[in-house]
Amino acid sequence: MRTKSLKAFSILVFLLLTLWGCTDKSSSTNYNDLNSSDQKGDFKVEVFSKDNDKKSIYATLTYIGEEEEVSILHGGDEALYFLIFKNEELLNPGSRTDQGTKAILKQNEPLIINLDKSYQDLLKSGDYQIVAIADMSYDTPESTQYRIPVSTNFSIN
Fold first, then answer.
1. Whole-prediction pTM
2. pLDDT tens digits, 79-95
3. Could you tell me if residue 41 is left (phi over 0), alpha (psi between -120 and 50 degrees) or otherwise beta?
């Protein structure tokens, strides 16, 4: 009888140690934590940040369709751009140029755009809303226009 109890106890301890070993013991936020995302058609936009680290703000645009790669048209230098709000006031007003810049997106390979350093310098102590916007179309005559805004809240102490 004692052998059965010892064997059952050993199995229980083994299972508990296995479960404990499989749990995530990390208490800090990973820099790659996703804050917000949206998908329209064959495109997904995600925005990432970590509070109190303005250098950690970036967004991704990923083509998730069936082709190996697609050509898109967008305005400005990048297919994604950022708007920064503090107390509902836009801190970085500007405009986008007509969509004439071409980019190639490969299937399931995110295009990563970091928040520009000049925008990082705008961020002082306070609470902000960061909006990453993908504004583009397929590079075809019958192209569909995509505008995908994704926002997250961000704080600096």
1. 0.73
2. 899 999 999 899 887 66
3. left
